[in-house]
Amino acid sequence: MTQHGQRHRLLALCLATLLIASLITIFSVLPSFADQPKSKEKAKPLTLNQAKVLFVKHIKPLIDAKCMGCHGEDPKKIKGKYDMGSRTLMLKGGKSGDPAIVPFRPDKSPFYIAVTWKDADLEMPPKERNRLSSQQVKQVRQWIAAGAPFARASDIGIANANASSDSLTMKTSGGLSPSWTNRKYKKKDIWSYLPTSNPTVPYDALPPSAPKHPVDAFLRQRLRDAQLTAAPRADKLTLLRRATFNLTGLPPTHKQINTFLADKSPNAFEKLIDQLLASKHFGERMAQHYLDVTRYADTAGFSNDWERPNAWRYRDYVIRAFNNDKPYNRFILEQIAGDQLDPRNPEHKIALGFLRMGPWEHTGMSVAAVTRQIWLDDVTNSVGETFLAHGLRCAKCHDHKFDPVPTQDYYAVQAIFAATQFNDSRLPFLKSENTKGIVPLRANVARLQKIDAYKPIKDVKGDNSFMRLNKKRKGYLQRAFKRYQPFALSVKSQKPQQVHILKGGALESPGRPVSPGVLSVMSSIHPATVPASAPNRRLAFARWIASPKNTLTARVIANRIWQLHFGKGIVATANNFGAMGAKPTHPHLLDYLASYLIKNNWSLKKLHRHITTSQAYQRASHHPDSTRIARIDPDNNLLSYFRTRRLTAEEMRDAMLAVTTELNPRIGGPPIFPEINWEVALQPRHIMGSVAPAYIPSKTPALRNRRTIYAFRIRTLANPLLDVFNRPNADISCEQRDQTTVTTQVFALFNGQFTHDRALALADHIEKQADTSEQKVSRAFRLVYGRPPTQSQLNVALKHLQKMIVHHKTNPPVKTTIPTTVQREMVGEQSGEIIKWEEKLDLKNYQPDLKPWQVKPHTRALAELCLVLFNSSEFIYVY
Amino acid sequence: MNFHHTRRDLLYGLGATLGTVAFNSLLSSAANAAESAKSPSPLAPKKPHHKPKAKSCIFLYMAGGPSHIDTFDPKPALAKRHMREFVRKDKFASAMASGKRYFVKSPFKFKRAGKSGLPFCEHFRHLSTVADHLCIYRGCQAESINHPTANYHMNTGSRFGGEPAVGSWVSYGLGTENQNLPSFIVLPEVNYPQGGAACWSNGYLPAHYQGTPLRAKGSPILDLNPPKGVTKDQQRKNLDLLAQLEKQHQKTHPYNKDLAARLQSYELAFRMQANVPDIINLDKESAWTKALYGVGEPETDGFAKRCLLARKLIEQGIRFVQLYSGGWDSHDYIERSHAKRMRVVDKPIAGLITDLKNRGMLDDTLIIWCGEFGRTPDNGMRGGKKVGRDHNAKAMPMFFAGGGVNAGHAIGSTDELGEKAVDVAHPIRDLHVTILHLLGLNDNKLTYFHGGRFKQLSQIGGSVIKELIA
């Protein structure tokens, strides 16, 4: 533990940092506790021998785990001069001079008082999350009441203090201290490092009449054990909507509805699933989730938020991979080591974009060694999080607090990437890539580069800011130009730099050198030797991940796919399979699915099909015996019914465009620019030394009304419509979308221009197809909900329509125009004075969407109904 | 972990166990909403961990990095070395800080003010009149010298975007007194600071706790109003139809517990549409009050209005208000540009403190003034004759006023040249722990389970800077 003392003070070991102040407090308040009344002793005191056993089995491990970090482990780090390394030392106490333990008198023992957390000034351990359980507090009390004896395991005839059946040591490459290396893990916390069991499918759990589906057998077994029944099958329309959204992120079309409802064959649903898996939109939906995990954006973040002009090629690679059902093990290899796998395959260079997904920037204010380290840390963590559900960052500054991941392993994985450098070289477009329309888009940027779009309004003499503004604008446009050119966001291998363990995570304190390696905890089951040669490091590492022997890989992806369909993973924390993650609700099922995936050549489509054709996937979203369910399985972990979910932000936007028939369903290509709230579009984005050029939507509805996954993703510019509906921040990996209900959603959906435009487009579409008011209303319901209105709904909607017709006949719409310029201002760095300029917006040949003043009052009136339907829960939720 | 309480008790009864609840809610599903639907709103006022010194907070953020040497921390020793040249070679120095450097003395005069005799730059003429209400702190140290990362660090405790801001943590811990408005309101300039809206992000905390910017131009809250031409009556009718459809839908989907909350949010939005313009309307303020802040004066008008609005929001029970004033990045011409920046905020802030004092609100309000880092005593002389200062993470200016702060004192100190804090020096995490402490929250207890661990504002824990507290 000598390294401890040298650690960089700002990044010191988590637990060890904050105790000084608190400890001083403990001892300064001691006297007041001496006067406290004794609490009633109810429990019979333990015998001396019982107390020794208690100490060995429970008290000592507890002191080691929760106290020694600051009170004994490292003599240099002892807080409050209080060492808990021996009984004598505990009796001596700390700085105050009073003993920490008064044998036989727990209520007079500061040690006991501290762990009860009864007094705000005397709480130990100080962090809420380390607090002792009530059971542990009781044990401390019993132990002190029996005289607080210390003992060694051998003294009382226990071979190994921690050799209880539910805990074991995990062999790793070793921690910074022997106590970490030899520490015990509870079996339930290390399940994910154990090989996949080969469970027998419990078909006997299925009702005799039920199809013999293994997924159902596993689920039914648990339901049977809990004496719960399963909900009946959902109605066909609900099923259709559920499967279509889950597999493609889009609502079923009118034709799909008619076909599916008319298909009375027993395998109608299987046929539907096959159709959906074959849809080109399947890949888009899967990619959206995958890109949430990998943090895709079209810009780099931080000061300049520079564009990553060719990131879109990686996005399309991911979509293609899912659509072509690229075996998942292959998908991993290509993204981590595509260049080393087959240097001639151009697609592999694009796949490597994965390693570049995190926010990253280097400017004149950055230190090169620091920004390089930031990337290394980012990629190390991201690889672990994405493929192994182990965010490795926790092991950067110290051995992992909860998982058997020593800091040695963190730097071993980091060394995998020590030879990896950024590469943005030329790479001709592939046949499989969508480059349609790229030429005119590129020409437009070239035109803008020649235009002087910033006109000074108020310049300040002697402040040369305008020169800088124009330079910045050019830098932005250069990158925009490159967006339409054949380059790839990729990496290459060069001479590796030597990686060292960084003490306390500090770059300034390199410790011992580390060779490239893998997670050593798996070494007995699935060892791997990583060659030191630069060109093979990543490939060896990727092969270790993408192996059936890796206990994490297949489970992790099977769980992500399960989560997509059931709204919650078998492991609820899809990015964390470690001790602090959730435990699998159905471990055998998870293992079964992982094996199924591997047996089927890592085909994700087969796994999707297997899961979605289960009875469980087709259950109603409501259980007839909800009272009993609420009591026995309130979180629906046993899946007796199907979980309702809200549409994700992207699905909501895409579904509205699909319903109005405005959606351009083209797959792939350079990013598009949807219309967003104009105030946000023109909101100045303060970048280093300037304001970024304004956000300008793509010029035609066909170009911009494409699926949201193709929308240019700017890290520092919100899209309010999407963000209020829980689109995640692109800077951190998102394992699962939230579904919060907040008021700003109402502003976006009920007041926002986007929904108003869609409502009008839908009304216009209906007006062209239906004659009577009744037909129109009915059609609106069919298009938005996929079903006709009920009689009462028809009545209220008709009444509403009539009122609105009256309103619109007497209230002509207010015509608004799109601004053509925007005024910018910023504080001149050299003068402190405001400088102002005008930016001319590139709206040449801009075609707005349909607007109220272009249609008749009847259409506007019908649009009000459409607006309400788009806001209604039947549209927003998937049952 | 043993729980003998219901989720609701944990969440709203015992502030101390917020972290565990977060863990529960993470692992539970939408189906568990049955219980949460019965619970009060996530923004309902919650009990603090201990008796708070202040109930609400106004965070005055000077984006760009104000210089300590030219504001509250005079360094006469620099005068002797003015324009003396030296070279810095350091593997861990940025391009900006390397190479040929020159020491730069402050171009400003300092005056001592108040009974406390605290030193103020001559351009803080008004602020010096409330000297005895200020607690100046010279010990805070940042880690990054890059604007966005430093902004993230000061605002969220992490140098990388994506984590919850101080205001989000405070809202999560305490809720808010006004259920009709967001708990955490940001008053940015037209230009957002570097790093953008991630500076007031809720990060991984639920969306209820995100900072809501009241925009300086245009609609104060985005889409607060429908597109032009849509009348109130028309909207009401649509809302009524929506309510009818929703109620039918609720009947057929009684197990979807989000539906009630959703419908409520529509009603609340409709009310906000009516209330917000009133709340942000400064017209009803007296001419005297406006003059106190400097409203109407060309130099101070913009920031003065935001300071006045901050007071009104605090009056309305908003928990946390953050104001931005940018332009402090004076690499050159420190005399001209810093003088200007000081004059822009001087009167408005002095006005705010005086106004809060007069209304008896100062003791319940914590005011914080700082930027993302300080500036260097030396300069790289970019392009010739101008004198400025570069970024400095090791020392920065800061002051506090209001609830529970050690007013009338300057705490901590920097070295002779102002290069780094040497006395009562603390990292940003300790500042965060102290802010939470003053507001009645314990950083170690204010945790949220995310990404495999209980996260907290200070990241790894920190200590209260006791010297700052009265």
Report on the architecture of this protein:
The complex is a heterodimer of chains A (879) and B (470). With 879 residues, chain A is mainly α. Among the domains of chain A are: 2-164, no CATH class; 327-428 and 491-547, no CATH class; 649-878, no CATH class. In chain A, the strands form six sheets. In chain A, strands 4-12-11 form a three-stranded antiparallel β-sheet, covered by helices on one side. In chain A, helix 15 (328-341) packs antiparallel against helix 21, helix 19 runs antiparallel to helix 20 and helix 30 (743-751) crosses helix 31. The longest helix of chain A has 21 residues, at 368-388. Chain A is globular, with a radius of gyration of 32 Å. Chain B is of the alpha/beta class and 470 residues long. Chain B has one domain: 3-Layer(aba) Sandwich (Alkaline Phosphatase, subunit A), CATH 3.40.720.10. Chain B has an eight-stranded mixed β-sheet with strand order 9-8-10-1-11-15-6-16. In chain B, helix 7 (232-252) packs antiparallel against helix 8 (258-280), helix 9 (287-293) packs antiparallel against helix 11 and helix 10 (301-315) runs parallel beside helix 11 (334-358). Chain B starts with 6 loop residues before the first helix and ends in a 15-residue tail after the last strand. Residues 1-38 of chain B have low confidence and may be disordered. Classes of the chains: A mainly alpha (879), B alpha/beta (470). The interface between A and B is large, with 130 and 119 residues.
Mean pLDDT across all amino acids of chain B: 88
- Give the overall silhouette of chain A: globular
Please list the strands of the largest sheet of chain A in the order they lie side by side.
4-12-11
**Low-pLDDT regions of chain A:** 1-41
Number of strands of chain A: 13
**Which fold does the CATH topology of chain B refer to?**
Alkaline Phosphatase, subunit A
Distance between the termini of chain B: 38 Å
